[in-house]
Write a structure and sequence with these properties.
Rossmann fold; 24% strand; binds cytidine-5'-monophosphate
Length: 404
Amino acid sequence: MSDMNILNGKNVVLGITGSIAAYKAADLVSRLKKLGANVNVIMTENSTRLINPITLQTLSSNYVATGMFDEVKSWEIEHISLASRADVFVIAPATANVIGKIANGIADDLLTTTVMATKAPVIIAPAMNVNMFENKITQENINKLKSFGYRFIEPATGVLACGVYGKGKLADVDDILNGIIETLTVVQTKDLSGMHLIVTAGPTQEPIDPVRYITNRSSGKMGYALAERAHMRGADVLLISGPTSLNAISGVETMNIKTCDEMLQRIIDNFEWADAVIMAAAVADYRPEFVADQKIKKDDEIINLRLVRNPDILEKLGQIKGNKILIGFAAETEDLDDNARKKIIKKNLDMIVANDVTKEGAGFEVDTNIISIIDREGKITRYPLMSKMQAADVILDRIQDIMK
Ligand code: C5P
């Protein structure tokens, strides 16, 4: 989907902050220029101590703005004009300090003032010491910004400027460039706009007592990839998620649930709104019949735990489906295709995404998947190993085909 030409003629505003990695911004400016972008650089006071504004001025062929009260030059560089002219706003490298300021509405220099005034997509590439990056405050700020639609290019892991090994190195210039290209591409091609989509993800947890539960193995990665790609392609996405360790997705409304019953309730509450439901969650088929009020004591050698069937969410939705699209997942370990075919009929689905969780690259926790898609007619399409993001796009393309 990405196309380097997309940068041609685009206005990129690049904010540089006071991280040692500031010198890498020179390379980024030069690469952006070569791809035809017009680049306006804004530097924080601290960053000017690490790289000379003249370098960036020469590479960008534009005046480099540093202070709020710089004399306005003939290029119209006051902050409001830069904010509104930007097609994309990039902050690379971004320190914990500037991320914290933006996340908390502080606009006390030219960069933070301009970024607050822009309506362009904002891409932030953090670079800092590993402990600063992992600090809960930084993580909370990042998650908050993500939930408002700010995009992040994850820092790399390696030896940091402070000599420590860990996560916090500015991402490769190639990755930052790809992030910019992808963002501009998405902004231009919102092919799913108007679609209302519910995605479920992760496992459910069915309590035994206040401290114990039964659950399924599921990282939630496939469901989150679907929610993220659908959102990037313009759909309105409601993500209903069981407990996972994944970060919130920028701009996607997320409802966190624990049990199958809670998941069912949230879907039913929002079913009328939805055009399609993708059940990527690994819902527990059984739950303990009784939930003990107190932690069960380990006095007995053997205890009997009676389990009762949970409602089959998809089957219930299949009964009230109307013209909505229902997609199920089948994570089988044997007779994959046959089981998937049967499930489509039984649950009244539009398609099943099947993956053999015993195959390398298709299991839990990994970032890749090997999927087959089975449609209502029983036709099977097999896809090669791909990233979960790519698999998400394939599934979304198929939904789009059904809706046409
Ligand atoms: O029949 P099976 O559980 O293998 O079907 C898997 C599909 O059904 C998945 O899409 C899963 O999210 C969904 N499911 C459900 N309610 C359940 C169990 C599974 O909707 N109680």
